[in-house]
Fold each of these.
Amino acid sequence: MTIRQRPDERRQGLLEATARCLAEKGAAGVSVRAICTQAGVSPGLIGHYFGGVAEAIAATYRWTGDSVGQALDAAVAQAGPAPRARLLAYLTASFRPPIASPELLGTWVAFWSLTRNDPAIAAIHAEIYGQFRHGIEALIAAAHPALADTRLPAVALTALIDGLWLELSLGHAPYSAAEAEALVELWLDALLR
Amino acid sequence: MTIRQRPDERRQGLLEATARCLAEKGAAGVSVRAICTQAGVSPGLIGHYFGGVAEAIAATYRWTGDSVGQALDAAVAQAGPAPRARLLAYLTASFRPPIASPELLGTWVAFWSLTRNDPAIAAIHAEIYGQFRHGIEALIAAAHPALADTRLPAVALTALIDGLWLELSLGHAPYSAAEAEALVELWLDALLR
DNA sequence: GTTGTTGTTGAACGATCGTATAACAACCGC
DNA sequence: GCGGTTGTTATACGATCGTTCAACAACAAC
């Protein structure tokens, strides 16, 4: 039997266990029993903290998205005051710790595949990506105040980052994280020249 | 009861049913019964044409990949002799019929999520993406004979296309297929300038 | 210490999963 | 036509799925 934990710690443990299951077994392999075994907990407990496994996965997506958002903000804060440096830090943070971990990449790909078929996941996805794009647009506007439209550059940079991230996640990508960063910087200059 | 079909037609029907299931229900929702219902066939038949559902999915990935490859080649053939036009046709074909259909996009995202966890799918993925990159590299070399390295540009273009494709697939993307094409052309010029 | 609330377990339920197989239908060679 | 091969169905099996719930353990209030 497991020792009783504080409720928020237990809930957090279940979120992390869900993320680990999604990374290891994919969207098709995650299950209540797998999650609870991963968390070292009895299968009945998922119903106590979440309404069901679907809600647990949704909460995990929200938590993962928030974590990434905080890491992005931290990278920007560390970049100093120069607008271009702040924008570049935001864009390249996806290829550095703590975001560029194999586990997080795997979890994220699983969320992509769930987004198409689960409306609740799709809503969270829209929120997360909306925030991400909004962050890029704000930093672009700060770096290039004269620019008329920030939407398309934000779309373009998001797409390149996601594409590079995807191939890094699927393994055997014929490039390094450092090369990915360099490509993002090149793309940024091409878009805002 | 279903009328008997020619074996290759029946097998092809099962491949298409599998693809439709992956698009509609995702990697987590596909099942023998769903596939066979979609194909209008009894569940036992999947074992007759494939060793099991895993093999059916793998065969579907191979068939889908071949179809995309043929569509890409057709787009190049239609583009005429100019090297740059041929390269651009190869790159933008992903955003035009028959490749840019909602069903194909959905199926493809499901394959991405399976790639991380199923070695057989991963092998097929490596083959398909190897061919795609090889195609880009050959067209780049033809268009820019003096270029030393074609690997990184091919990586970069593949990533942008996948990223744009992903967001188009997940719905509510804040851009059109035409804008995606224009971005790919811009990226091409930035890489090979 | 007693009582009541909350966390947790482990087993049970019905549903669905993938696969195997016996029976039947359709086709082919003769 | 007839026998043998192949396609197809329907069902059955064991495993696993998500969820529920009675029972028990841990803690808080008093």
Note: Chain A has a mean pLDDT of 95.
Amino acid sequence: MIKMTLKDGGVREVAEGSTILDVAKGISEGLARVALAAELDGKVVDLSTVLEKDGSLNLLTFDAAGGKLAYWHTTSHIMAQAVKKLFPEAKLAIGPSIEAGFYYDFDVARPFTPEDLAAIEKEMAAIIKADAPLVRSTLPRAEALEKMADEPYKQELIRDLPEDVALSFYTQGDFTDLCAGPHLASTGKVKSVKLLKVAGAYWRGDEKNKMLQRIYGISFPKASMVEEYVTLQEEAEKRDHRRIGKELDLFSMNDQVGQGLVLWHPKGAKIRYRIEEFWRKKHLKNGYDLVVSPHIGRGELWETSGHLGFYKDGMYAPMEVDGQDYYAKPMNCPFHIMIYKENMHSYRDLPYRWAELGTVYRYEKSGALHGLLRVRGFTQDDAHLFVAPEQMPTEIRRVLRFSLDLLKDFGFTDYHIYVSTQPKGKSVGETEQWEAATIALKEAVLAEGLECDIDEGGGAFYGPKIDIKIRDAIGREWQLTTIQFDFNEPERFDMTYIAADGSKQRPYMIHRALLGSIERFFGILIEHYAGAFPVWLAPVQVKILPLTDRNKEYADKVAAMLIDLDVDVEIDGRNEKVGYKIREAQMQKVPYMLVLGDKEMEAGLVAVRSRKDGDIGTMTADDFADKVCKEIRDRVN
RNA sequence: GCCACUUUAGCUCAUACGGUAGAGCAAUUCAUUCGUAAUGAAUAGGUGGUGGGUUCGAUUCCCACAAGUGGCUCCA
């Protein structure tokens, strides 16, 4: 038996493995989560317990997901207490824990300054030192409203809850907050706090609401963990694609060109070429056909597609030509549909898989732009599938498999799949269609032996979708692939095919972008590899470093041989020491360097240096060529 | 778009109080022809994001605009 001393002073004895329901009986009021402090075997442990919906007992350690949740949530309360002490006029909004750390939103007369943050951190240290216990209590609605008389945002939250729910509060010292928990036993459990930044945030995330001041922070049980966190942040900063894009001269954005419009420099364009070339070949090999469509189209087209109705805010303003409005395309689909409609189609011809690296322009809010990850002009690796309903399930599986295969080619093998279902509000299409499509999506995931999370109501109004998020080299998630059903456009464009019985039928339409957009994908690739691209993608694959002018001719010969094999070679013939040239090639992340001096020239060899392993000795030029060509072919990192 | 912050040489950053800017790297030139992450010297480079205001005088203070950064919203 485990003896647990509860925060309210009571003692419970529970058998190991018993559920929290046994422990929490009489104090939880059926709430989904309850926080406790307890003794295990007579020893006080840092034990906040989370009551999961299924009643399982989750003993919290910091490293458990729930542990972090409680830890950071308690820290956010401590911050709120500190802010209330320093800024008594501040009104509290909400303060949850997030993926990494926590925040709290405040309504204050003026924004917080860095000095304010320092003062708040200091105040928090005092609260932590006081080690006040967090005491849970509940109140009926009317009394809860009265208790929060000075907190309009809290009152709004209370009013939105069902009337019969008892509201829980957590009190630490002189500070009480409306809160569902869970929390640590006392403020002293929090050891090391760092407030990170201040940002504006709309109340309830709605831009029509007042903008509040949000303070982000993070906390850990050990100071060393703060250092680890900071180190990871620094690592992420070093990998920042904007920084590496500059250092490796890959791309730029320009004030005069316009916001969110990318200039691809020669080295960046080289990588893009390699990505696109590979992408096209792979699509052709996998049953796709390539199509090409223009960058602009008449207003009437966008009227028919419905984009002018539901997507106008996302489109560039029209340009007038010969009395007609033309719009830059925000999507490629209407063009592909027009190709479809150019002919009659038999069920025998389906499915069509039409792919295009289609450049689109979307008006993104200026504040949303972010390096290559969010731009206004970008190229989607788009394709549209037009399939007969009975083909749909196998077709979905096929797209999913193809997608994961393509991601693997680029070094992304760790991913997370989400299926988004019909949104609650308005949506187009028949219920049966939605159901069949959603089932096909889920079953495709299962049939491939994969798992997925369901994003209930997360689909677009025109259809359900699968999204794939990949995990990069330092553990961050990025959304790349999206596979979306469209019940809207086939209807609007009155797309048909002739079925076996001679009747006209409506095909299913699936949009899919596997890499997402080339720009965004490139940005993520840069960060994933920290600029050190695999040999097959590297803009310069081999850098030849002749030692003296005497060796230049030999360098030219080796270079010509490699270039003939489609290897990308540069010669650094500058009058510099070899150490200097190596340093530069190394910083440019060139996979291989060939040092060519008199010795190599006389023996007909090349001295190979790899960016990863340094000097790897000499070999014949042919052997080296074989090695590099094989690595390029096999897409070796 | 909203909140906050930032904007000085190609890059990274200095100039406490208002008295018209300085360093490293890069570039250019010269010398050096060298063996696995920086050879030395010299030269050049800036109407301080743009426009306006305050002031005898503005890179410095104020305002507007633009771009960027971190968030909110949105999303490939």
Note: The two ends of chain A are 54 Å apart (CA to CA).
